[in-house]
Each structure stands twice: as structure tokens, then as C-alpha cells.
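Our consortium's second objective concerns turning raw sequence data into structural hypotheses that experimental partners can test. To show how far this objective has progressed, the report includes one record in full. It was chosen at random from the queue rather than selected for favorable results. The single chain below, 308 residues long, was entered without modification.
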Amino acid sequence: MRRRTAVGSIGTILAAALALGACSGGGADSATSGGADDAPAAEAGDGAAPAGGEEAADNAGDSADSGADEAGGMLQAAQVRTGRQIIYTVELTVVADDVPAAAAQAASIVTAAGGFVAHEQVSGDDHATLTLSVPSDGHQDTVSDLETLGEVTDRSRGTEDVTQEVVDTASRIESQRASIARIRALLAEATALAEVVEIESELARREADLDALLSRQEELAGLTAMATVTLSLHAAGEAPPPDDDDSGFLAGLSGGWKALLTVGGGALTVIGAVLPFAVVAAMIAVPAYVVLRRRRGQGQAAPDAPAV
């Protein structure tokens, strides 16, 4: 019994030793395999870190590019917003020693600036009025050159912002063109004569509207591209007097007197036109009236004669 017990104890100890060895081996294997697995993971992590960095760098570059594009778009939009469509008008009155020479020099100045003389009215050697068209860009420099022709006695500037009208006209033109394209498509599919006539009438109307819009667009483009300068040249001592104030008792009295003269002149004109016809009518009517009255007098005297 003791031997069996000893043998059993030895067997138990051996089994425990084998179990411990197996556990130690498994732990070592696990540690080894875990270390091996961790090493590739670390290597993969080392490789993934640069890859993530490159991706982040690329994303940062893309963000920078998109930011630059967005900034460029905002700048362009700001330029569009600030690119107003302005009509410039300038009125300039100058006293010159030699009006014809000053007018010729003004034409040369405008031509050199890329403009032209739209209208010219000369009254002898003392007065001249020129309507000048000059490029809107830099028109102030041209006006400054015109001011050197003599002594500036009057100057006025005016601007009109037509940006919204320009944008609206362009939008309406695009819409009208699209509408015309749809109408033409309908015309191509129409088969009945009544439909063809009706569609052609509508097409003609819309094309006429498009032509009107295109004309207005061209007009606006010309008005905004060229500034209008009205130059009045006068000789020394011949400048027109300033306009008086059209208000007050004296202004009303002057206006009433002018109106009376106008009405009186019109009445005299009518009388002068009618008078020749009245004279001719009188020359015919007066003798006829005299003859008719005599005949009536003779007719009334005949019944009063005594009977025999």
C-alpha cells in the first residue's frame, strides 16, 4: 500500500511537472509568437504612420488648393461686384482767346484719347459747342486737358449707375433665346396649318422682343464705354450770363409778359391770315346786299299805287 501510494505520489508529481513544463512552453511560445506578431504590427505601424502623414499632407495640400481657389473665386466675385457699369456725363464751359482754334484743339485732344466729336455747333468766332465722346476709362484726364484750353467758368459732372439694368438685360436676352429655341422646336413638330401660323406669329413676336433687348444692350454698352463731354467755348466778354432764378414776383411778371406777347402775337398772326379773305368777302357781299335791299323796297312800293 505504501509502495502504491509512493508510486501514485511520484506519478502525480511527474504529471504536475509535465503540466508545468507544457504551460511554460506554451507561455514561451505565446510570448514568442506574440513578440513576432507585435514586431510586424510595429513595422506595419511604422509604415502606416508615414502613409497617414502623406495622406494628411495631401489632404492639407488639397485644402490649401481649395482654399486658394475659394479665395480666388471670392476675389473674382468681389471684382464683379465692384465692376459697376457707370454712365459719365461732363459739362464744361471755357472762355478762350481764339474760339475756332480752341475747338480744333479740343477735337485733337479727344481724338488722341480714342474718342470722337459727336456734334459741333459754331456761331461765328465767339461761340462754339462741342459734344465729345471719350473713353470712360481715363476720361478725367481728357477733361483735364480740355480745361487747359482757357479759363474754366463752369464745370459739372454726373454719373448714372446702370449695372442692374445691364445684368437684367443680359438675363432677359438669355431667357428670350431659350424661349425662341423652344418655339422653333414646337414649329418643327407642328403639322396643322393653323398651328404653324399661330406658332410662327408667336415666334416673330419673341424675335422682335429679342431684337429690342439686343439693341438696348448695345446702347448700354456704348453709353458705359464712352463718357459724354459737352464743351462750350466762348470768347472773352461773350460768355452767356448765368441763368436767373425762375421764382419770385419779378420772375412771374416777366413770364406773364412773355406769355401775353406770345398770345398777342398769335392773335395778330391769325388776324393777318384772315384779313385778305375778309376783304374779298366784303367786296362781294356789300354790293349784293345793296341790290337785294333795293329790290325789296321796289316790291313793297308797288301795292301802294292808287287803282284807276
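The partners drew two points from this record. DSSP finds six helices and five strands in the chain. The helical segments are 2-82, 99-112, 139-146, 163-189, 193-225, 249-301. Both points have been shared with the crystallography group to help prioritize constructs.
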